[in-house]
Write a structure and sequence with these properties.
Order of helices and strands of chain B: EEEEEEEE
Number of helices of chain A: 21
Largest sheet of chain A: 8 strands, mixed
CATH class of the largest domain in chain A: Alpha Beta
Number of domains of chain B: 1
Radius of gyration of chain B: 11 Å
CATH topology of chain B: OB fold (Dihydrolipoamide Acetyltransferase, E2P)
CATH superfamily of the largest domain in chain A: 2-enoyl-CoA Hydratase, Chain A, domain 1
Number of strands of chain A: 18
Helix content of chain B: under 10%
Number of helices of chain B: 0
Strand order of the largest sheet of chain B: 1-8-6-3
Strand content of chain B: over 45%
CATH superfamily of chain B: RNA polymerase II/Efflux pump adaptor protein, barrel-sandwich hybrid domain
Structural class of chain B: mainly beta
Shape of chain B: globular
Distance between the termini of chain B: 6 Å
Strand content of chain A: 15-25%
Shape of chain A: elongated
Oligomer: heterodimer
Largest interface: A-B, 13 and 10 residues
Distance between the termini of chain A: 70 Å
Helix content of chain A: 25-40%
CATH topology of the largest domain in chain A: 2-enoyl-CoA Hydratase, Chain A, domain 1
Structural class of chain A: alpha/beta
Number of strands of chain B: 8
Number of domains of chain A: 2
Radius of gyration of chain A: 28 Å
Chain lengths: ~525, ~70
């Protein structure tokens, strides 16, 4: 027997041919839409989904699920003629050494419009995250179903299948979900993009669209580019996504940062990091930051920065609901949610969009056991005709009631104004209340209150303006925090420089309580 | 590098404290807007020289209005 015949016999008796076919399919899957498809993606200035996955994960940690899923065409002897991989890439990986599920549409294949296997892998992403109870990262670029004929038509799913979005909803109550829009994201992927705890879009490459320009032109008569319809200039300011980052790399970096503050699931507590920033660091600038001139606004971010661990503030939603500032930070290495007013924007008042942003943020904190720290300069609900058109009172009451039902530890620092019904949203049950000497509080700011309560007296005065100013000054003096401290209506009246030290000590004392809060939230979080 | 100073909100220019060609230090107040009865100061994020000043006291300006450039 010749050596060649010997070898052929060995192959026939083993599984080597099949092993080779598996390898061929895997190679085809890794090739994605082929060299042309990949080149087209790169020429448009965008990464492929596999490059995105490598960029968001720790190097070398991707462990793919379902590499052999796709449409195969085979010859008479079972040899592979062609293989179209599923156009959703899915798997496990690690971010900062912690496990995650990661997935995204492959735009180089059918423009990310789901193939049968692609759709199955895509909806399986949530199931995996739920099964393993680890965070889910979705990297989106793709559209929904296509009316074009697929290669292999499949029957519709059975009537008794669970609703497709049920697992999407369940993940929000179970594990952190972070998503990015990195190219055009429309239809189904757009709905999944926003069904997350944190979403970010790449300003240079992404658009988010319910429907694209062609459909919009036909139905609505609007002739717009996809950037005009759904670029960052639209969606970074309307709350569709939390953040807009310069490019894909910056977007993926934000996802890593976001997850660093969160536990792996609702049965765990947020991870505590080593901290070399002294907990009793007293920043001198804090004592000068609030102007004595009550009409002069100040920069609240210059309060947040010095109070939290240096460089640890990660702002979410800066582009919308801008009278409210929300973000994650650490105090002595322990993660917290920071909520503050921005007096530079609409005086820091509670607008309808600011209330929606704050409500969603509080629910994030409640779901993942993040203590809330509110830095208060709240003049009240936004007023005027636009505020009424925006249903400000409904959205405002929503956040007030959300705050009233929270169970996570809550510390409130009265920095300046704390007025009206809206201020109630800034104080949680059993909260720790500190007041700066600049704190003012009451049913409404003196400027409005005096004009209403003393209208007749002001009108009757020889110099109404002087009378109004005199009354305003008298009322402002009554709103001083000293009587509140004397009445034990605040825990402590403090030197602003003591804020960090006191909050760090308070936060340490929450450890036993936080242990008791582990588990699913008492409500169903929604996008 | 030139830094564009744009308004963060709509409002009225209450005080303009700089003119074209003026040198400013980081943290100097450039102008003060009045928004919802609050005075909102805009500080220089970097040291530089003012150019392309496009605001005057009393102007009502929209959000994202390019007020001046620092170079």
């Amino acid at each position: 027997m010749t050596r060649g015949a010997d070898s052929a016999l060995m192959r026939a008796m083993s599984w080597r041919d099949e092993a080779d076919r598996i390898a061929a399919r895997r190679a085809a899957a890794t090739a994605q839409g082929g060299p042309e498809g990949v080149e087209k993606q790169h020429n448009a200035g965008r990464l492929t989904v596999r490059e995105r996955i490598d960029a968001v994960l720790d190097p070398g940690s991707f462990d793919e699920v379902g590499r052999t899923a796709g449409d195969a065409e085979t010859g008479e002897n079972g040899e592979l003629l062609s293989f179209d991989p599923a156009n959703f890439v899915l798997g496990f990986g690690e971010i900062d050494g912690r496990p995650v599920v990661v997935g995204g549409e492959d735009f180089t294949l059918r423009g990310g419009s789901p193939t049968l296997a692609g759709l199955r892998k895509s909806v399986y992403a949530e199931k995996l995250a739920l099964e393993y109870r680890i965070p889910l990262v979705r990297l989106h670029e793709g559209s929904g179903g296509s009316v074009g004929t697929p290669k292999r038509p499949t029957p519709p799913s059975p009537v008794f299948d669970a609703p497709r979005f049920r697992t999407v909803a369940e993940t929000l109550a179970t594990v952190p979900v972070a998503s990015a829009a990195l190219g055009a994201v429309a239809g189904l992927p757009a709905a999944r993009l926003v069904s997350s705890h944190f979403s970010v879009m790449s300003k240079s490459t992404a658009q988010i669209l319910v429907a694209g320009p062609v459909v919009v032109k036909r139905a609505m008569g609007e002739d717009l580019t996809k950037d005009e319809l759904g670029g960052a200039q639209v969606h970074a300011k309307n709350g569709t996504v939390d953040n807009a980052a310069e490019d894909e790399a910056a977007s993926l970096a934000e996802i890593r940062t976001f997850l660093s503050y969160l536990p792996g699931n609702v049965w765990e507590l947020p991870p505590v990091m080593a901290c070399d920033d002294p907990e009793d660091r007293a920043e001198d600038s804090l004592v000068d930051i609030v102007p004595r001139d009550r009409r002069r606004a100040f920069d609240m971010r210059k309060v947040i920065g010095p109070v939290v661990d240096t460089g640890s503030f990660f702002e979410m939603g800066r582009g919308y609901g801008r009278s409210q500032i929300t973000g994650l930070a650490r105090l002595g290495g322990r993660p917290v949610g920071i909520w503050a007013n921005d007096g530079r924007f609409l005086a820091g008042s509670m607008t309808a969009d600011g209330a929606q942003k704050a409500r969603r943020f509080l629910e994030l904190c409640e779901t993942f056991h993040l203590p809330v720290i509110s830095l208060i300069d709240e003049p009240g609900f936004w007023i005027g005709s636009q505020a009424e058109k925006d249903a400000t009172i409904r959205h405002g009451a929503n956040v007030v009631l959300t705050a009233a039902m929270l169970s996570v530890p809550w510390a409130s620092v009265m920095i300046r104004r704390s007025f009206g019904v809206a201020q109630a949203a800034h104080y949680g049950p059993g909260g720790y209340v500190l007041a700066w000497p600049s704190a003012e509080t009451g049913p409404l700011p003196v400027e409005g209150g005096v004009a209403i309560a003393y209208r007749r007296e002001i009108e009757a005065a020889a110099d109404p303006d002087a009378k109004r100013r005199e009354l305003e000054e008298a009322m402002a003096a009554k709103q001083s925090p000293f009587p509140r401290a004397e009445a034990f209506a605040v825990h402590e009246l403090i030197d602003p420089r003591e804020t960090r030290g006191l909050l760090c000590r308070w936060l340490k004392r929450q450890a036993p309580k936080l242990e008791t809060l582990k588990g699913p939230p008492r409500f169903l979080p929604r996008p | 590098m030139a830094v564009n100073i744009e308004t963060e909100t709509g409002g009225t220019i209450w005080k303009c404290l700089v003119e074209n060609g003026q040198s400013v230090a980081e943290g100097d107040v450039l102008f003060i807007m009045e928004v919802m009865k609050m005075e909102v100061p805009y500080e220089a994020p970097v040291a530089g020289t003012v150019s392309d000043l496009a605001i005057a006291e009393g102007d009502a300006v929209p959000e994202d209005h390019l007020a001046l450039v620092l170079t």
